[in-house]
Amino acid sequence: ILNVEQSPQSLHVQEGDSTNFTCSFPSSNFYALHWYRWETAKSPEALFVMTLNGDEKKKGRISATLNTKEGYSYLYIKGSQPEDSATYLCAFQSDSWGKLQFGAGTQVVVTP
Amino acid sequence: KAGVTQTPRYLIKTRGQQVTLSCSPISGHRSVSWYQQTPGQGLQFLFEYFSETQRNKGNFPGRFSGRQFSNSRSEMNVSTLELGDSALYLCASRLAAKNIQYFGAGTRLSVL
């Protein structure tokens, strides 16, 4: 049973457009929230690890925000490019050990 | 620095057989976690090993087991294979003190 939810399940974006999507997670027993990008036939790649309420992280055109009190995180892609096409996964961590509880992912397709 | 290496990349087995998958973590990483992905399911946590000890276990039957060696390499074993064990198995390693988990490319197991 997943209580880490991601929406939408998939997104089609025109090249150059910006987009965002959501990860919701339990607001209790929060330790960290992870974002991964997973391209077909490759390893999941860590984008961000967020630990504090109000955290904002940025990596190039991708950024993320975190609200631990209400249990959600947003991932933003600014000026989408075809190479941004991937499945974006969020994962909830409830303690310092490595168990991650993943959402089902948001599949992003960027068309030229 | 070499990344997380999983072998083999692909495996075909028949029902009732057993299988062993291998994961070599990034040099210096002492924690290794294993995840299963089946069609329609998100990544499901199997177990985590740290310093040759299992620290955490997911909700999987006892047919799924693992171990870690003194060089931090880990193996995962599935006995009495079932059709439903067909999946992509990923391992991830991390430094004990840091949260980022680095994933391997996975082993795709098909059970016929």
Folded structure, characterized:
The complex is a heterodimer of chains A (112) and B (112). Chain A has strands spanning 5-7, 10-14, 19-24, 32-38, 45-50, 56-59, 62-67, 72-77, 86-93, 101-102, 106-111. With 112 residues, chain A is an all-beta fold. In chain A, strands 2, 4, 5, 9, 10 and 11 form a 6-stranded mixed β-sheet that branches. A 5-stranded antiparallel β-sheet of chain A has the order 1-3-8-7-6, with no helix packed on it. The N and C termini of chain A lie far apart (37 Å). Chain B is mostly beta strands and 112 residues long. In chain B, strand 4 and strand 5 form a beta hairpin. Chain B is globular. The chains are: A mainly beta (112), B mainly beta (112). The interface between A and B is medium-sized, with 25 and 26 residues.
Silhouette of chain B: globular
Total DSSP helices of chain A: 0
What is the largest interface, and how many residues per chain?
A-B, 25 and 26 residues
Q: Sheet bearing the most strands of chain B, described?
A: 7 strands, mixed
From the structure above, extract its key features.
heterodimer, A: 112 residues, six-stranded mixed sheet, five-stranded antiparallel sheet, globular, B: mainly beta, seven-stranded mixed sheet, four-stranded antiparallel sheet, 11 strands, 0% helix
Question: How does the SSE layout of this entry go?
Answer:
The complex is a heterodimer of chains A (112) and B (112).
Chain A: E1 5-7, E2 10-14, E3 19-24, E4 32-38, E5 45-50, E6 56-59, E7 62-67, E8 72-77, E9 86-93, E10 101-102, E11 106-111
Parallel strand pairs in A: 2-11
Antiparallel strand pairs in A: 1-3, 3-8, 4-5, 4-9, 6-7, 7-8, 9-10, 9-11
Chain B: E1 5-7, E2 10-13, E3 19-24, E4 31-37, E5 44-50, E6 53-57, E7 64-68, E8 74-78, E9 87-94, E10 102-103, E11 107-111
Parallel strand pairs in B: 2-11
Antiparallel strand pairs in B: 1-3, 3-8, 4-5, 4-9, 5-6, 7-8, 9-10, 9-11
Summarize the structure.
Chain A has 112 residues and is mostly beta strands. Chain A is built from no helices and eleven strands. In chain A, 37% of the residues are buried.
